[in-house]
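Possible regression after last week's pipeline update?

I re-ran a chain I had predicted before the update to compare outputs. Posting the input and the new output here so someone can diff against the archived version. Not blocking, just want to make sure nothing changed silently.
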Amino acid sequence: MFDALSVLVLLMVCALSLFREGWSLALVMSMFAFEQVLQASLPIFTQIPALGNIIVGVVVLGAAFRSSQLHPRPFVGYANAGWLFCILIFAFAATSLLWTPSLATAWPLTRWGLPYFVLFIILAPLLISDMASVAKFLTASLILGTIVACLIIFNPKFTVHLGRLGISLDALVRSNPLAMGEIAGCIMILSVLWRGSRLSPLALLIRCSALLIGTLLCLQSGSRGQLVFAVLIAVCLYPLSVRLKSAWTFLGTALALLFVGSVLAWLVPQVLGFQEISRWDAGSLEGGASVRLQNVWDILGVFLISPVAWIIGLGFNAFAGITTASSEPYSHVLFIDILAEQGLLAFVCLVLFLWCVQRDLRKLWKMFSDAPVQRSSLASLLGLFLYQLLIVNKQGYLWASLSFFLLGILIIRLRIRVDEGIDPLPAEFVSGDFESSQPAEEFYVLSPDQ
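New output (post-update):
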């Protein structure tokens, strides 16, 4: 049953994605978890591991072309400053292969990442054109992410091994549980921050179910960081997503969060075994943190005594050739990797990229903070971006951190298109001076099928 259901979901989502760019972008963001669902369903996806992602790439290519034909001036905001800084960072990494001490490991990582770079950085930015498309993307992400999570949780082919949920790809290799944890954290964040325009009982049920399913998948996948990051971001950004108008509103929200926390505390021992729970004890958490810290000291120690590396870096994936932690293929801390392996020039590009993102988020917030739906959209985008920022500095390396850069690029592109008047809202609303008794949904149709 799960095999047929997984293939049916793939066909339906691909069909939707070709004609609805919000669904296409949601498919990109969930592709690595969806890939595991497909690998558990049909042998061909295990025999050809990249097949599912190739299908996603073809669908997104078609969706991006269609989007460029439908929307006015589609390339306005495309090659923005953040996009150019991102290109430069990856160009530094590719060039540094000439002097990296770890070419044997650095080249396969680069070769693996190049097709995904095209998908995430070249094609995917065309799938967001205005605030309405952001809303549709968030809605599609919540729905698709929840479906993918259900297909993982309830499929008996996914089993727990050493405290982590996954499937066996061959006799020695299991699927990546961090991809499951990542999509689970996204579901949790969106279920709290994204409200849409229709506050119906059905919408509330979907959000509550998504929160429960996302939390369950995070726990079963053993993704400690993803769960902690998602909870912190959801709690901290909730006041940005929904304006708390009174003390009673605040009290009600606090009680609701307390109730949800109590339910989750009860849920943990019900769904986790001894091995899974042991990953959360103080010793295990301290051990994981100490490994990351040692990685940072290893690579910074070599970087600081190499003046030439201050400018051009030690070379991409140099960590693998200089570390004393032989079991670690990279430091897992992206920002340190960029500084030490690509040098100060690339690190400056990273800082400027982050500066552009925060600048344009502030501008968008000034424009739309009084509009409930747009306020929720921006809080959700910020939540996803911060979530990816934390993840890439906990488990990532450059070519596997494309979601982080994509979300930043989308924020900058969105601000430019709003400033240029391409967003299809009345001019007085875009300027932030709009006052009307009309509900927000008259300006945005947020159903994912539109």
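Follow-up from reviewer: compared with the archived run. Residues 2-432 form one domain. Marking as no regression found.
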